[in-house]
Amino acid sequence: MTDASAVPADETAKSYSGLPGAFRYALGASDSWLFKGYVVVALLLTLAIALVFALGLLVLLAGSEGLRGGTFTFSRSFFLFVGLLVVAPLLAPILLVARRHRRTGSTATYDRALALSGFVFVASLYVGLVISVPPQLQEPTGSAVVAALYAAPQLAGLAPPLAAAALLYAVHRFLR
């Protein structure tokens, strides 16, 4: 077993431990200001989404108190799974850039491209939410774009985030 003082200083500077360390590492290692901005936005959005899903889970648990397992147990698990599906693509650019800087070194072009695809994913989440608004909660609007999004079937709200996540993966694979 080795202690931390036996590890060279440059080796500890190159590594990070866990997700919080990846945020710090990617923020410091990247030369792209666009990517650094994405790290801050993604961190804030991830915290906000985690809070919303945690509060939603509490409401779901309170509503299913005293009921037997089965469908209710599945719905709670599915709720957490959806939360993970929303947060994972937000964090992916940060983790990919941190990994690439740590292993092989990265370019500002790669960092910028992943930040742009991350911002596209953030915008796609908003578009998906607008599409999936229930009709009784839709507000009248003068915008033809919003009216067209409201007119789409609610299930179509899955398409923009899925397409943006695929774009993020394609950008990573193309620039790898």
From TrEMBL:
Q: Which residues cross the membrane?
A: 33-58, 78-98, 110-131, 151-171
Which Pfam families does the annotation name?
DUF8056
Identify the residues that the record assigns to the DUF8056 domain, covering every copy. Answer: 13-176
**Which keywords describe this protein according to UniProt?**
Membrane, Transmembrane, Transmembrane helix
Q: Does the keyword Ion transport apply?
A: no
Protein name as catalogued: DUF8056 domain-containing protein
